[in-house]
Design brief:
single chain
């Protein structure tokens, strides 16, 4: 038995206790079994087994068939070091023709040592593991449940793996199907929800294409506690050795929005998420519901978004960690606050030269158009080339929006169709008429410095008759 194990594994095999079996089936029980390729006993063995139970068949034995019907492993621990020592040939090389029909190794642990300094050992736990048709230099069929908290969570899979390339583990081929059932995302702290997914994988341990569909029930960013349902399809390449993921394409559906993304999750000392997002079919209220603490989104409208997002592995709240650079446009924007809508209605009416709305026109809904370049870092969004337009008025400029306390500080120029005096209306118009020529510019009836303060749900508009007051 020791000789055959050493020939198959090219290792030095040590067995603590050994007991032959004859009835009802031929076989043996071996305990405290180790497989080593390093003479230093202080180093970890490649394999440590608490117990091997081998059950043969008298029919196979008497007919000289090299097949073992069943082997059971208990307390199996596999370790792949950063540099696998060369094979040990203690016996004359022989052709291994024995095939194991079924091998069961529930509770197996696989650890892969880091390939680079500073990275961590990758651990896979197998509460269930069944292998079939085990033979040297051939793919092995498997059925398993595997746990890896940092990479795949809890996974059920079936397929083929191998032949195993010990010197180049990353080149070992894999192929099969997988399913994730009700995986709790709250272990990641920043987010929460229940994930289910299914799909296929094929390639190698170091580079496997993984495709599939996923659904997350009650997904939320834990700092905001606004749950939504997410569904999506994805095509990724996974490095099962280093834990890196390349997202070739992903389509995410949330409420009435569809987001397209590609990017990666990689790094040696903590993983960095990097995504390029295209939100050509999105709604601003959907994103605000997910990322802002307010129960009611302050803004509704069709959103077009292009952004590069980075999430570094820092010990900070999500909104302080996330970094974003891109641009957005919101068409047909409506503020949900009646007070804000009333102010926009008044701004539009005055800019058109209709004076302050009265009577039935007071509650008229005014839609706005917004667009800007944006850079978000440390919870502060800096806007540039920003444009805010309502019928009769257009504001351009830039400023900041604090996503942590939702405060706005935007400065720019307000261009109105109406002249200054006509926009003021009433008795003020008579007093302002002499100033009209000074504020006409580029075909606009009046151009004034403007500043927007307050919060995104309750903005306050301030105009000045001093052109340089707000630095524009």
């Amino acid at each position: 038995s020791v000789v055959s194990l050493e020939q198959v594994s090219e290792t030095d095999v040590q067995i603590g206790k050994f007991h032959m079996l004859f009835v009802p089936h031929p076989g043996y029980i071996a305990q405290d079994v180790t497989f080593r390729r390093d003479s230093a006993l202080s180093n970890r063995p490649l394999v440590r087994l608490a117990k091997i139970t081998c059950r043969g068949s008298w029919l196979n034995l008497l007919s000289f068939r090299h097949r073992i019907p069943r082997i059971e492993l208990e307390g199996a621990q596999f370790y792949i070091p950063a540099h696998v020592p060369p094979g040990i040939r203690k016996h004359p090389q022989a052709k291994i023709t024995t095939t194991v029909t079924d091998l069961y190794a529930n509770g197996t642990v696989l650890e892969i040592a880091p390939r680079q300094e500073g990275s961590r050992t990758v651990r896979f736990d197998f509460p269930e593991l069944g292998l079939s048709n085990l033979a040297k230099n051939t793919p092995i069929h498997f059925r398993t449940r595997v746990i890896n908290k940092g990479l795949i969570g809890r996974l059920s899979a079936a397929g083929t793996v191998g032949p195993l390339v010990l010197k180049k583990v990353a080149e070992t081929r894999i192929d099969g199907n997988y399913r994730l059932n009700d995986d709790d995302l709250s272990t990641y702290k920043l987010i929460a929800g229940i994930l289910s997914a299914d799909g296929r994988f094929q390639g190698t341990l170091g580079s496997a294409e993984v495709t599939g569909r996923a659904a997350i029930r009650n997904f939320e960013i834990t700092s905001n506690r606004h749950a939504v349902e997410l569904t999506g399809e994805y095509n990724t390449v996974v490095d099962g050795i280093k834990g890196n993921v390349t997202i070739q394409s992903a389509t995410v559906r949330m409420l009435r929005s569809i987001l397209l993304a590609r990017g990666s999750v990689r790094g040696e000392k903590g993983k960095i998420l990097s995504l390029d997002i295209d939100g050509g079919q999105a709604r601003i209220e959907d994103l605000l519901h997910l990322f802002v603490k307010a129960d009611r989104p302050a803004l509704n409208g069709a959103l077009k978004l292009q952004a590069h997002v980075v999430l570094p592995p820092k010990q900070e709240p999500f909104l302080k960690r996330v970094q974003l650079e891109g641009n957005f446009r919101i068409d047909g924007a409506e503020f949900t606050s009646p007070r804000t809508e009333e102010k926009l209605d008044e701004l539009s009416a005055r800019a058109l030269g209709n004076g302050k709305p009265k009577g039935e026109n007071v509650s008229k809904i005014v839609t706005a158009e917004l667009k800007s370049d944006v850079k978000l870092e440390g919870g502060l969004a800096t806007l540039s080339k920003a444009v805010f337009a309502v019928p009769g008025a257009l504001t351009s400029g830039g400023g900041t929006f604090n996503v942590l306390d939702e405060k706005i500080d935007l400065r720019g120029k307000l261009a109105m169709r109406a002249s200054l005096s006509r926009a003021a209306g009433g008795m003020k118009s008579v007093l302002l008429m002499p100033l009209d020529p000074f504020f006409k510019k580029d075909g606009a009836g009046a151009v004034l410095p403007i500043r927007i303060l307050g919060t995104y749900s309750h903005p306050a508009f301030r105009l000045s008759l001093t052109k340089s007051r707000y630095g524009n």
